[in-house]
Amino acid sequence: MTKEFINLSGGDPDAEAPKWAVDATLNAIKGGREWTHYAAMTNHPEQFKTAVVDYYKQFGPRYETKQVIPTAGSSAALYIALASVLKEGDEALLWNPFYAGHKWILDEMGVKMNLTPLDPENNYRPRLDKIADKVTAKTKAVIICNPSNPTGTVFNEKELRYITDLAIDKDLAILSDEIYLHYVYDDAKFISTASLGEEVKERTINIMSFSKTFSMTGWRLGYDIVPERYLDKAQRITRMTGPRPANFVYAAGIAALTGDFSYVEERRQIYQGRRDYFCKAIDDLGFPCHKFEGAFYAWFDARSTGLGSQEFVDGLHKEENCLLSPGSWFGTDTDGFIRVPLVRDIPTLKSVVDRVKRFTESL
Ligand SMILES: Cc1ncc(COP(=O)(O)O)c(C=O)c1O
Questions:
Q1: Tens digit of pLDDT for each residue in 291-344?
Q2: Which pLDDT tens digit goes with each residue over 220-248?
Q3: Chain center to CA of 101
């Protein structure tokens, strides 16, 4: 096969980290000992935490630096957050479709997922009348991915208030995965879960990452912001498992958070342009494609092909050298759906559309 391989199996942005973050890191490494030995022997983690607290203020909540737990990417932050509030035999409330990483950790921990729909028939909005009956005596947490991977749902205030009221009423921990918070489009507005009042804030753990905001997937930098009631446990888990950032990567984090955010706004506009192009083009092929409000994943319905998600993905890979993700990884009732992260330029996405067209016409 001569066609160039297009790998869109993961949400890895095509941009590089902001120049000032790269430069700060290079200077740190070249600077030697102070940045290349144990971070715990320096004040860099504290400087990083201060930058986080100052940054997060813009979304409402104010935190103390001791509440920030820096991690090697938000996958580690997620594990620490989930393990701080859940144990084997518990249940967690989350959405269908969900981010596969949430499921993998819950499965590993022996926590059952109670799923509530974010379905196309309701334009991927939560059905508030179908949430409360998913909470049982064993349910200990609700996971909110806002903006959501894979549906791009940006939860509005009414929805968030309903969910957080329920969490207070049923004494659930709230895990708020906000790693796409800067990538929202049109009239959608990101609302920090913890901004909805003190009672919500004191049971919400924010899960955050530099991977998508600053296109720093390989740098492995993320963090939790943890309320007092879960802090001791979260700190103990972190101490034991130690998935912390490299010392010089703190320099990148500080530079990114205190640097020029026009980088992020530029990326946001690029993702929006890609969404406008790609979703319409796939829709025009006859596969309903959700015009998402947040994050950067196209999610389309290919059930009319008669293929399951995995068959579709395998077929496209084999015939057209293009790898996408099967929707079946991201939920139950999602077979026949396909996920495409819009992390390549429009000419490449156009080639994806052409390949999908050719592949599906050949069936
Ligand atoms: C919703 C969500 N949370 C967490 C992660 C993990 O990202 P990282 O470990 O690179 O910070 C991802 C990655 O795609 C994601 O989509």
A1: 999 999 999 999 999 999 999 999 999 999 999 999 999 999 999 999 999 999
A2: 999 999 999 999 999 999 987 778 999 99
A3: 9
Same CATH topology for 6-16+262-361 and 19-258? no
Q: Ligand 1: distance of its center to the CA of 75 in Å?
A: 6
**Are residues 70 and 49 in contact, defined by beta-carbon separation less than 8 angstroms?**
yes
Which residues are bridge partners to 294 per DSSP?
Answer: 184
The alpha-carbon radius of gyration of the chain (Å, integer) is 21
Domain borders along the chain are 6-16+262-361, 19-258
And the tokens for 54?
A: 């100052």
pTM above 0.70, yes or no: yes
Identify the bridge partners of residue 91 per DSSP, sorted by sequence position.
112, 139
CA of 216 relative to ligand 1 center, distance in Å: 11
CA of 96 to the centre of ligand 1 (A): 17
Judged by phi (left if over 0) then psi (alpha if -120 to 50, else beta), residue 214 lies in alpha
Q: Is 73 in the pocket of ligand 1 (CB under 6 A)?
A: yes
Distance of alpha carbon 36 from alpha carbon 16, whole angstroms = 23
CATH architecture of 6-16+262-361: Alpha-Beta Complex (3.90)
SS3 39: helix
> Tell me, what DSSP letter sits at residue 241?
H
How many residues belong to the chain?
363
Specify the higher pLDDT residue, 32 or 185. 185
Look at the domain 19-258 and name its fold.
Answer: Aspartate Aminotransferase; domain 2 (3.40.640)
